[in-house]
């Protein structure tokens, strides 16, 4: 499962979730404004910007279409 942590009015968050949708990658979106306690966890992973994408052991921050494409390819090879 892929989890995207973002917030409203975040262009990179919107671009990330839109690209995940286009690539048919199942994901859950959590707004850090509704779950502020998660911010310390994300910082502990070394992230200082949103969105933060966590996909199993892999995680990254910012809009990374290259990593989303790689994630979609990996999901396709499993299915």
TrEMBL record:
Keywords: Plasmid. Residues 2-59 form the Glutaredoxin domain. CDD domains: NrdH. The keyword NAD does not apply. InterPro entries: Glutaredoxin, Thioredoxin-like_sf. This is Glutaredoxin domain-containing protein. The lineage of its organism: Bacteria, Bacillati, Actinomycetota, Actinomycetes, Micrococcales.
């Amino acid at each position: 499962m892929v989890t995207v942590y973002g917030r409203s009015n975040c262009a990179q968050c919107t671009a990330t979730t839109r690209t995940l949708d286009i690539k048919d990658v199942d994901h859950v979106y959590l707004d850090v404004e509704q779950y502020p306690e998660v911010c310390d966890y994300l910082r502990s992973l070394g992230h200082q910007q949103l969105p933060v994408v966590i996909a199993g052991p892999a995680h990254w921050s910012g809009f990374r279409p290259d990593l989303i494409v790689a994630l979609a390819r990996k999901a396709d090879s499993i299915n």
